[in-house]
Each structure stands twice: as structure tokens, then as C-alpha cells.
Write a structure and sequence with these properties.
The chain is of the alpha+beta class. The chain has helices at about 1-30, 105-130, 170, 195-205, 250-280, 295-305, 310-330, 335-350, 355-380; strands spanning about 35-50, 55-60, 70-85, 135, 145, 150-160, 180-185, 190, 210-215, 220-225, 240-245. Strands 4, 5, 6, 7, 8, 9, 10 and 11 form an 8-stranded antiparallel β-sheet that branches. Strands 2-1-3 form a 3-stranded antiparallel β-sheet. The two termini are about 15 Å apart.
Length: about 375
Amino acid sequence: MIFTVMLFIIVLGLLVFIHEAGHFVTARRNDITCHEFGFGFPPRMGGVYKDLKTGKWKLVLGNKEYMGNKTLYSMNWIPLGGFVRIKGEDGVSKDLDSFGSKSFWVRFKVLVGGVFMNFVLAWFLFSVIAMFGTTELAGEQSKNAKIISQSRVQINTVDESDKDNKSPAASMGLSMGDSIEKICSGGSCYAIATVNDLISVTEKYAGKMVSIYGFTGENKFIKKGTLRTEKEGRPLGASIAQTVTVTYPPHIAIWKGLERTGVSTYMTLNAFGTMISSLVTGNGMPEGLNVSGPVGIAEMTGKAFDLGLMTLFSLMAILSLNLGIINILPIPALDGGRILFLIIEKIKGGPVDPKLEGYIHGISFFILIALMILVTAKDILRFF
């Protein structure tokens, strides 16, 4: 549990840090002063900045206020990402080195810089996965692919159900990515080499107790449970696929990474669209779509690590895309909301009242925190 929490903190910290680095680098490249670039969230442990007069690095300890023209690079006590304090980001300061004094295009670039870096990170991670080992459906490899593993039957998804009526796969503790090697029942064992093997064996033993042998990553497991009868649904209660692990040369892996980034972005946007449409029309959360908070994501991070480094990278890439997409939505308090106010300013020929904009961002931030608390509570209740 402690390892999973630490791993989650590292993963989330990296994703948020990369996002904030996008804002920071874009601002500095456009001659905007950044008072502080911090790893983690305040209170501050300490930081360093380069003194303008002496050219030497100076140390700042504790949470002492710093508003210098040279960036303070700080370490903070709450290790969940990072932040950047940009001069004039509230629009009040009109100094030449402030955010508020810059053109529409420069401010737009700074605001979208974080989202851009989230997409770049996802592209990089997907490219690394394609280079060192990505899972594909057996028989669908291109000529550039090098197969580095035997084909195996893997769990794609486990049927969702309430805690009192779990599917057999869920009750046994099977999860996405698990490979099934053989199934035994009543003293007989059957090797599972293809999807048809698994379908045939689970149908044969529908309604009976079975032992399932397989792997989670490189770790062997034995899961025992009773399959469903044909009237109750799919005997195992999971979708399955026959897969192989392949690698691609670097020049192909880069394009494979870009392709997967595009496909994943489309799927994520489509899921968001379906969810919002369903909620607006009063139909509730669409079937098969689940929203997870920090607890749920931490759980997924631990499971991904168990399946191997490439699976963890894949989850990180998906989370990075989600972070980028959520941030670009026109919701006040997020980057997309600030871009919306920037566009309104461009259309009306003048900025929105800073106090009004601040109130709107504040209220939206409160609502977002409340939603996150509700989702987190839902994640926790799943364990009871």
C-alpha cells in the first residue's frame, strides 16, 4: 500500500510538473518574469535564485515571500506536482516583463503551453513503449514489427457490477492485462492458447467451480471461483483478446507513438462528449464509463506497475492526455477558462473586470474541489 501511494505521488507529480514546465518555459521564452517555479505545493521547504548583482546563487529557506525578477526554484512540502508564479498573471501589472502587458498571441501561448507539454509527454511515452515492447492483437502486425513474445490470451476488461453481484472475473480478482494459461475443474485441466480455447472451456464449465492459472506481468497466480451459468451471462464475465508483444525500430516507433496519441485523444474526447451529453440529458453516467479520483488512479497505478514498466508508461500517457484535455476545457479556474476570458477580451476590445474574473475562477475552483471530494469518496466506498 505504501509503495502504491509513493508511486502514485511520483507519477502525478511528474505529470503536473511537466504541465507547469510548459507554462514556465513558454513564459520565459517570451520575456515574462516568473517569480517562482516550484516542485510540489506550498508550504515551501526552500529554494535558490541567482542574484542579479553578484551572479551567485542564493538560498531562501522556509515560506518567506519572494517577488524578485530572477526565478526562485523551490522545493515544497506537498509532493503532488508543481506550480509557476508568473508576474502579472492576474492582469493587474502592466510592466513590460509581466504577463498582462503581452499581446493576445503571447498570452495564449503561455496558457496553452502546459497542455501542449502534456501531449508531448504522451507522445514520448507511447513512442518509448513502441520501441521497447507494446501489446498488439495477434496476427495484426505490420512488416516493421518484431514479435518478442508468444501469443497469449489476455483480459481486456472485467464486467462492471455492484459489490453484491460481482462478475466471476471480478470475484476472482482478475483484472485488465492478466494472461490466462490454463483452466482446471474436477481434476481436468485445459491449456488456453487461443480465445476460442477460453470460450470453449468456460462454456463447458459454466456454473461450476474452476481454478484459473495465469500471469499478472511476470508473476504467476491461481484464481478460484464459480463461473456463471449461460442464463446469467458470459461465464467468466470478461472480454478477452489474443495478443503478442512487439517492438519497432526508433524511426517507426516515433510515428507509432504519434498515431497512438491521436487515437487515444480521439477516444478520450469521445468519452468526455458521451458523458457530458448523457449527464445533460438526465440519463446519468453512461454504462461502461467510470470516473476515478486520486484513490482510483492510485489503485490503477499500482496494478499497472505489477504488469510491467511499459504498462505503467501507457497509463502515464493516458493520464497525461486526460490532464491536458481537462485543462483545455473552457471551465473557469482551468487553463481553458483563462483562454476563454482572453478570447472575450479580444472580442470586446478590453479585459473583463479582474475582480469579476477572480470571483468566477474562485467559485469554479470550489466546485471542482467539491466534485473531486465526491469522486474520491465514491472510490473509497468501493472498498467497503
